[in-house]
Amino acid sequence: MNYFSNIVKIMAKYWKVFLLEGVGYTLLLSLITVAFGVILGLLIYLGRTVRFKPVNWLCIAIVEVVRGTPMLLQLYVGYFLVPKLLPFEVTPFLCVAVALCINSGCYVSEIFRSGIQAVDRGQTEAARSLGLNGRQTMFRIVLPQAVKNILPALGNEFITIIKETSLASTFFVGELMTACLKVRGNTFLAMECITIVGVIYFVLTFILSKLMNAFERRLKAND
Fold first, then answer.
1. What confidence tens digit (pLDDT) does each residue in 147-199 have?
2. Which one, of 153, 200, 206, 156, lies nearest residue 177 by Cα?
3. Engineering a disulfide at 104: which of 37, 127, 139, 206 sits with its beta carbon 3.0 to 4.6 angstroms away?
4. Of residues 16, 44, 187, 193, the one with CA closest to residue 105
5. Which is nearest to 27 in space by CA: 170, 218, 174?
6. Helix/strand/coil (H, E, C) string of 8-20?
7. Are 179 and 11 in contact (CB under 8 A)?
8. Rounded (5°) CA angle 176-181-185
9. Which residues, 6+ apart, have CB-to-CB distance to 121 below 8 Å?
10. Over the chain, what is the mean pLDDT?
C-alpha cells in the first residue's frame, strides 16, 4: 500500500514537473524532430535520386551510418559536435534536437522511398508523355500520391520518437525521463517515479496510436 500511496503523494506534489515540464518538453522535442525530419528525409531521398554521384553517395552514406549506429551515440555526437560547428552558444536541447532530426530524417527518407516506389510507374510514364519534366512529375504527380501512402508510417515515426526522446535524459534537456530523475533525486523513490513516467508514456503513445488508427481508417474509406 505504501507503494501506491507514495505514487499519489509524488503526483500531488510534482505533477507540474511531470505533466507540464516533462510532457511539454517531450512533445515539443518530438514535434520538432518529426517536422524537420520530414523535410530532411525528403531532401535525402531526392539526393539519392540525382545523377550527380557525389551527392548520391553522400546521402546514401549518411543514411547507412545513421541506421548502423545507436541513437545514444548519435546524441553524444550531436551534443559535443553541434556547439563546435555553430558560431553562437547553443543549449543542450538544441543539440539533442539536431541529432534527433538527422536520425529521423534518415529513417523518413526510407519511408519516402517506399511510398514513392508504391506509386504505379504508369503514372510517371503518363506524366512524361504529356510533356512534364522529371521535377514536375515528381512534385505534381508522384509525391502527392506517395504522401497518402506514407502518412500512417509518419504517424508511427512520431510515436517512436516520443519514446526515443527518453534517451535525451542523458543530457537533462527537460523531457519526461529528466523529470523522473529530478523527482527521484528529491524523493529517493525510484520505482514510484519510474512507474509514473511509464504510465505517462503509455497514455501518450496509446492515444496517438488510436488517433493514427482512426486516421488510417479515414484514408481507406476515402479510397
1. 777 888 888 888 899 999 999 988 988 889 999 999 998 888 899 999 999 99
2. 200
3. 37
4. 44
5. 174
6. HHHHHHHHHHHHH
7. no
8. 145
9. none
10. 87
Whole-prediction pTM:
0.87
Question: Which among 193, 195, 175 is positioned nearest to 185, based on CA atoms?
Answer: 193
Which set of grid coordinates corresponds to residue 41?
A: 528525409
CA pair distance 19, 73, nearest whole angstrom: 28
Arch. (CATH architecture) of 2-222: Orthogonal Bundle (1.10)
Amino acid in position 109 = S
Residue indicated by cell numbers 534518415:
106
Q: Cβ(146)–Cβ(112) under 8 Å?
A: yes
Q: What percent of the chain has pLDDT over 70?
A: 97
CB 200 within 8 A of CB 22: yes
- Are 83 and 96 in contact by the 8 Å Cβ rule? The answer is no
- The alpha carbons of the chain give a radius of gyration, in whole angstroms, of 21
